[in-house]
Amino acid sequence: MSEASPDSNTHVFTLTMDWLAFTLPDVSAQEVMRQIGGEWTKGKAGFRGYPLSWILTDTSRGVGMLGTGAPRQPREVHADLSAGIVSRWDLSRVRNILQWIKHHEGHVTRIDCALDDRQAVVPLQLVTQAAETGQCISRADRIQVIRSFSLHKGTASGETIYFGSPQSQTLLRVYDKRLELLAKKRPGAEEYGIRWELEFKQDRAQLCGQTLVGLEEQDWKGFLIGLLRSYVDFRDTTRDAEDEERARAPRLPWYESLTQGFMTARLTIPQEEPEEERVKAWITRSVAPMLAALCSLPNGQAWVEGAIVEGADRLKNRHRQLIKNGTRKRKIPSS
Questions:
Q1: Both 88 and 187 in a single domain?
Q2: Distance separating alpha carbons of residues 173 and 193, to the nearest angstrom
Q3: How far, in Å, CA of 199 to CA of 166, rounded?
Q4: pTM
């Protein structure tokens, strides 16, 4: 298999901050929700050992969870914000949130960053092959490869290489982001390629967050690439070579070019799906199964139809805006 030679001048590389979780020792839940923004709903159960919870749901974009009210420390708050939320923040907002956490003497418990090789210049097979032949130098103790495909169609639906274990404080996932998005029928899937995603937890997450706060945003890429190379490096060596010899071996050209390409990465913020499509996706995923169950009951369908009619009398501004936007989109200009 020939080695790829990514050229940072012609291939697109992007950086996305992809997950954030943190704990604050003495802040009200309301203040945390105001800082994050969005609409929050009080949960019916606890979260991560906290008896009180709030949920931030924004259709297809991700889920935010907040827990508080622990008897040992009633004003302690833990927040967990998934990729669908954090990936839509620009670096300035991420930095402001991290500064706010530090100001309140909080502790970052998880932070993920995603580096995308948009044109898949370095295929997953090349990464796996280098690891199998002993050319990977890493603090990780193991590598795991998981592939998935359709039993009926025989088409691939995903492939991920894991460096490290889920229990470790650092985990690297290298996976085909395009296949993942295609399997989920997400728009814009063809714009993606191979994603290198670093996940930091506990002390590693706190150290990463504190360092990013102290850096200018233009220096984040260099810091994150340094973390990637220090955790997983690919060098022209063998498994049987002495440790010092392995560490001094030249970096493999494809990995040198790839990480240099990441140094030129631009920040990317995923495009919003049209509001109508997000609402439809949310209903399909979360509401449709219950509607189907209700419709199967005696007079169930009539009740559902009645609830829809009744709901029309309680439309709010955001509902009317959805109707307005959808009507405008479908209007055919007169000739």
A1: yes
A2: 14
A3: 9
A4: 0.77
